[in-house]
Structure formats: structure tokens, C-alpha cells
Amino acid sequence: MGLFYKIKQLLFVEVRILKFKLLSDCKNTVGKPNLYHPLLLKGKGSISFGNNVQIGVVASPNYFSHYAYLEAREANSSIQIGNNVSINNAFSAVAFSKIRIGDNVLIGTNCSLMDNDAHHLASNKRHESSISKEIVIENNVFIGSNVTILKGVTIGENTVIGNGSVVTKSIPKNVIAAGNPAHVIRELPC
Fold first, then answer.
1. Residue 137: which of 104, 163, 112, 100 has the closest Cα?
2. Torsion of CA 2, 7, 9, 10, to 10 degrees
3. Whole-Å CA distances, 152 to 43, 134, 143
4. Are 145 and 111 in contact (CB under 8 A)?
């Protein structure tokens, strides 16, 4: 690797990763992901990483311009990421209760997981906390790019979620699902 590459890597990647580490305020973190992309850890809850968790992909969109965002909002909130998980650039997960990502999961660029509505839907309660329901991504799931997964969803093991999907209801194991709202397109061979 040439000198120009090393300077570029230092200025545009390593300094940004360090900046977001310094900006992170989540004190209850366990594990150490492999960072190829900046990661901001926020909240009063807990965030845990299994072994061999990769955040960011060099040869992928949003590499130089975005960061990953994980927030365990309240003291009893948690985000748990299993082993051998690869999360592409511009990922966000906000847990008011719990988000659990299993082992051997692949997540594409610009994906978002949110276990709550952020605000009540009723106009007279918009400034109150909303209801939250756990999100579970089981083992060996492949989530395409630009996917949004909403509260109360479980995605069954080995399932594939197509690009651009909005997952509003649980998806069974061993299927391909896509759309807005996401629905099962076909079963996967076992």
C-alpha cells in the first residue's frame, strides 16, 4: 500500500472512527466489533457484540459519508448482536426495549431497526413515550439494502429480506420476503 492510501485511510476513515468513539456515551457495552466505518453508541441501556462482528464495508455506498448508529435508549433497553455478523454502511438500530440480532446475519447498506413508534400516534400524546415491542432477527438471516424493520417483528432463521422492504409483521423461517409492507414471495429450499 502506498503512502497516499495510508494518508487517505488515516484522514478519512481512522480519524472519523475515533471521533465517533469519543462522541459515544453508552457506558454499558460488551464486546468489540471490527470497525471499518464510524460507529456511534448512545443511550443508558446495554449494547453487546459477539465475536467477529463487522461494522462497515469499504467497497460499498456511504463508506466515506455516513456512520452506524446504535441506541439503547432507556436503562433497561438492550441491543444484542451475535457472532459472525456483517453490517454494511449507514445502519441504525434504536431500542426502547430490545433488539436481538442472531449469529451469521448479513445486513445491507442503509438499513434501520426501530422497536417503537418514537412518538405516540395520538396527537394529544405525541410528547409521551410510545409503546415498544422487541425485534428479533434469528440466525443466518440476509437483509438486503434500504430495509426498515419495525417494532414487534421476528424474522425467522435463514430468511432473506429483499432490498427496499418495510417489514411490519413477523416473517417465518426459510423464505424470501420483500415489499412495502414485506410479504413472503416464496420458500427457500432446505
1. 100
2. 140
3. 20, 5, 17
4. yes
For this structure, is 119 an active site residue?
A: yes
Exposure string of 33-52, with b = 16+ CB inside 10 Å and e = fewer, is: bebbbbbbbbbebbbbbbee
* Contact (Cβ atoms closer than 8 angstroms) between residue 180 and residue 164: yes
Residue pLDDT, tens place only, 47-100:
999 999 999 999 999 998 999 999 999 999 999 999 999 999 999 999 999 999
Collapse the DSSP code of 21 into the 3-class scheme (helix H, G, I; strand E, B; otherwise coil) and give the result: helix
Cell 432473506: give the residue: 160
Is beta strand 182-187 parallel, antiparallel or unpaired with respect to 98-101? Answer: unpaired
Mean pLDDT of 156-160: 98
In which element (H, E) is residue 5 found? helix 3-9
pLDDT at residue 129, as a whole number? 74
**pLDDT number for residue 1:** 67
User: How far apart are alpha carbons 113 and 177 in whole angstroms?
Assistant: 16
Catalytic residue, candidates 37, 119, 120, 127: 119
